[in-house]
Amino acid sequence: MPVMKSDSKVVLVTGASSGIGEATVRLLAERGHRLVMGARRADRLSALADEVRSAGGEVEFTPLDVTDLGSMQSFVDLALEKYGRVDVIVNNAGVMPLSPLEALKVEEWNQMIDVNLRGVLHGIATALPVMKRQRSGQIINVSSTAGHRVWPSSAVYSATKHAVVALSEGLRQENPDIRVTILSPGATQSELAKTITHAETAEFVDRFREVAIPAEAIACAISFAIEQPADVDVSEMIVRPTASSN
């Protein structure tokens, strides 16, 4: 059974149908927080919600397209309707179709910009006004180690993740009443690599991910940041495999 705590928070998680998002929902529910989860794959959300509720956790869900501002607004509105507030939003949804620039996969470039960057901006645009009214809240933006350096084939992906770091730091400086956390995972077990359509890059990434850590490790980092005292802002964390050189 989840341990219900006096400081239980309402936490919204995007990209919750698999990987880091799914692991985060499971862990935070176990720790007594109330969850609202969103992703494109509603069937997976429904199955996860059943598991969480059967274990005694509190969770709501809705299909979510982070590239659509209206969809994101409905996501935040669901939290307000069910729980009356928004304490934390974890902007986790992302895609990673890596390829060399000369492959000219323009549609994939646009997809990364829309999901990885515009999706985070939409999360901020809809959650921040609520948090400002509350005079409290926390926005956790999932970047990547690729948001701190660039590899061949990662130029556009890294650009979106560098941008997440930059906008998060700007958000933090502008809002002393809101906690802002940048979380940058290294190689982590997830479905991200399945979006790679460039064969040579896919082979390289498969080797790179041989040391990948479980998604639960990133969920633990998110939980740590959330559960700090209100006057403590864990501004940035990089979590990578011990064996990783990158």
What does this structure look like?
With 246 residues, the protein is an alpha/beta fold. It has 7 helices and 7 strands; from the N terminus they run βαβαβαβαβαβααβ. It has a 7-stranded parallel beta sheet with strand order 3-2-1-4-5-6-7, with helices on both faces. Helix 4 packs parallel to helix 5. The longest helix is centred in the middle third of the chain and has 29 residues. The chain is globular and about 50 Å long.
Key terms:
single chain; 246 residues; alpha/beta; seven-stranded parallel β-sheet; globular
Biggest sheet: strands side by side, in what order? Answer: 3-2-1-4-5-6-7
Termini separation comes to 38 Å
Please tally the helical runs, counting DSSP H or I stretches of 4 or more residues. 7
* Low-confidence region ranges: none
Percent of residues in helices: 40-55%
**Topology pattern, helix = H, strand = E:** EHEHEHEHEHEHHE
Briefly note the structural class of the backbone.
alpha/beta
Strand percentage, roughly? 15-25%
Q: Oligomer, anyone? A: single chain
Let me know the number of strands. Answer: 7
Main beta-sheet annotation:
7 strands, parallel
Please state the overall shape, judged from the principal axes of the Cα atoms. Answer: globular
